[in-house]
């Protein structure tokens, strides 16, 4: 297992739609009123590899595929709001990045708000955590709905064409003091390190990277908001109904907080945090 040295990349944060859900479910002691949760995704430019995505947010296919029972239950529990111009593929085009220039899409896990726009990038190579896909790939409609997975959102022949991130060659030791066990060096140069952060979903990964301005951890749904991490307000037990493993979630959340405390300069970005993703703006935030 090699040691970690990070090469810098460029990072843009955007969101593709949002859903509504009572705040108290994601933030202990929060309001009973619905709060908006942006479907954040990250656009990354590597100096030699080019453009990549970390997750994709929603697309109109989510509405189409959740019209009928049982998937309609998913849409009713988390009503989704999305305009066509807010999709990842349209926002990237507005930034001068055509879909065919996105060489790689990294999926943190397989919930619909993270894979919703995957089919808009047919030329891209897909990387994913094996445990996350194994947990959902053979589920029937009812169990898939409970797991937040809509198979039709994935590209055709995904299982044959996509690649799991795990391999002995990619496994790396993390810097001393980082309270996670190991990472996976996705490009072999230390620029993008996938770190297992399971619990919310089986095999979920976060992504550690460095830009010219910051060291950033895209923590996916290991926390729903920066406020939850700062104030130590994990989700209400009711959130456990849609989690893969409640104990693993608590452990990942605890490790995230410990990492922030030990390294206050690290910028931790939860995928649904309004402090990083604006549900109305199409302006990319640069870190």
From TrEMBL:
Protein name per the record: MBL fold metallo-hydrolase
| Native source organism of the sequence | Cohnella cellulosilytica
Do the record's keywords include Metal-binding? yes
| Swiss-Prot/TrEMBL cofactor(s) | Zn(2+)
Q: Which residues form the Metallo-beta-lactamase domain?
A: 38-272
Q: Which InterPro entries match?
A: MBL_superfamily_lactonases, Metallo-B-lactamas, RibonucZ/Hydroxyglut_hydro
Top-level division of the source organism's lineage = Bacteria
Name the keywords, alphabetized. Hydrolase, Metal-binding, Zinc
């Amino acid at each position: 297992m090699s040691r970690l040295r990070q090469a810098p990349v460029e990072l843009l944060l955007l969101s593709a739609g949002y859903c509504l859900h009572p705040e108290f479910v994601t933030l202990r002691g929060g309001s009973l009123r619905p709060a908006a949760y942006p479907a954040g995704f990250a656009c990354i430019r590597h100096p030699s590899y080019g453009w990549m995505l970390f997750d994709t947010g929603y697309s109109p296919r989510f509405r189409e595929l959740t019209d009928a029972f049982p998937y309609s239950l998913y849409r009713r529990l988390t009503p989704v709001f999305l305009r066509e111009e807010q999709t990842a593929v349209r926002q990237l085009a507005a930034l001068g990045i055509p879909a065919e220039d996105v060489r790689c899409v990294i999926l943190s896990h397989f919930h619909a708000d993270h894979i919703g726009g995957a089919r808009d990038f047919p030329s891209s190579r897909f990387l994913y955590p094996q445990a996350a896909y194994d947990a959902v790939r053979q589920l029937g409609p009812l169990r898939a709905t409970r797991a937040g997975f809509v198979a039709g959102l994935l590209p055709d022949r995904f299982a044959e064409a996509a690649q799991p991130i795990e391999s002995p060659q990619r496994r790396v030791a993390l810097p001393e003091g980082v309270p996670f066990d190991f990472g996976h060096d996705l490009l072999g140069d230390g620029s993008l390190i996938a770190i297992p952060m399971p619990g919310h979903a089986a095999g979920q990964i976060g992504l550690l990277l460095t830009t010219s301005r910051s060291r950033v951890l895209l923590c996916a749904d290991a926390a729903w908001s920066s406020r939850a991490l700062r104030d130590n307000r994990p989700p209400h037990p009711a959130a456990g109904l849609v989690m893969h493993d409640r104990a693993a979630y608590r452990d990942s959340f605890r490790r995230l907080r410990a990492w922030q405390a030990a390294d206050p300069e690290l910028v931790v970005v939860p995928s649904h945090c309004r402090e990083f993703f604006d549900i109305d703006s199409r302006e990319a935030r640069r870190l």
